[in-house]
């Protein structure tokens, strides 16, 4: 696996890549509070299967650029990063995979640039309209999303999140994933990323931007791209009902659930996720 920086104008994206140069292009997007290593189990399997895999640290993470303005983390800007990687790869169509915030960006890319997608794979994040509608109407989901509102407070999250060697992050990941899903190697890689100057503010700015300026797709809410939603049922932040409601927005899609998995599905079920991804790619070639 190699690392390069791919540029969207002034925004540099630290990107791992692997696989044959002539393989169909797969882009894997991580979420909060992780980094490229979300996909460490999937990268070698997909590359071995013949896919050309790109795994960025999303803007604000790792050694990717950390622009100062909250507006720079709006999803309309984030999907431009995805398209910069597609252009760098020199292809018209990609297979796009996302988890957590990466999944939200992947949904938005599919709504705005369906012509660039061969397939879409979503892990444990609902369709944007489902998420917003549920948070507004469901007080239980609002309580589960408490951290979104906490992150709106100026400066305080940046000061508290690193306390006790990033205890909040480590505790959340351990408590809400299956036992053993995160290794010491995983935490070591994550902590290196969390310690990078400016990382905390940039990571939190995703949530600040989301509430300050909610996006509207010019093409409506339907997903036309062949889509699979993979969902760990023991997600303490997001309900299974949200996954089922998201399936209703798919013109050509499916929902697969895992009763014994959590929000951190790529860690809990690495082999199953890899197999599902390859099956979806094969059924929908670029």
Automatic annotation (TrEMBL):
The keyword DNA damage does not apply. GO terms for molecular function: hydrolase activity. Residues 25-270 form the AB hydrolase-1 domain. It comes from the Bacteria. The keyword Hydrolase applies. Keywords: Hydrolase. This is Pimeloyl-ACP methyl ester carboxylesterase. It comes from Thalassolituus maritimus.
């Amino acid at each position: 696996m190699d690392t390069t920086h791919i540029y969207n104008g002034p925004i540099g994206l630290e990107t791992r890549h692997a696989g044959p140069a002539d393989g169909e292009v797969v882009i894997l997007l991580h979420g909060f509070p992780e980094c490229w290593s979300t996909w460490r189990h999937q990268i070698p399997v997909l590359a071995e299967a013949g896919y050309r895999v790109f795994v960025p640290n999303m803007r604000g993470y790792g050694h990717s650029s950390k622009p100062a303005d909250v507006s720079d983390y709006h999803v309309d800007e984030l999907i431009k990063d995805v398209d910069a990687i597609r252009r760098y790869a020199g292809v018209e169509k990609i297979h796009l995979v996302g988890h957590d915030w990466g999944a939200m960006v992947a949904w938005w890319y599919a709504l705005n640039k369906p012509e660039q997608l061969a397939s879409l794979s979503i892990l444990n994040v609902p369709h944007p309209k489902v998420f917003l509608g549920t948070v507004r109407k469901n007080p239980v989901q609002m309580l589960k999303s408490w951290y979104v509102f906490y992150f709106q407070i100026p400066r305080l999250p940046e000061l508290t999140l690193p306390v006790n060697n990033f205890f909040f992050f480590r505790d959340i990941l351990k408590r809400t994933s299956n036992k053993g899903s995160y290794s010491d190697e995983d935490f070591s890689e994550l902590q290196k990323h969390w310690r990078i100057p400016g990382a905390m503010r940039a990571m939190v700015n995703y949530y600040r931007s989301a509430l300050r300026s909610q996006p509207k797709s010019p093409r409506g809410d339907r997903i036309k791209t062949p889509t699979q939603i993979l969902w760990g049922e023991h997600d303490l932040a997001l309900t299974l009902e949200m996954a089922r409601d998201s399936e209703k927005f798919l013109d050509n899609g499916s929902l697969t659930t895992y009763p014994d998995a959590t929000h951190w599905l790529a860690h809990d079920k690495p082999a199953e996720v890899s197999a599902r991804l390859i099956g979806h790619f094969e059924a929908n070639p670029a």
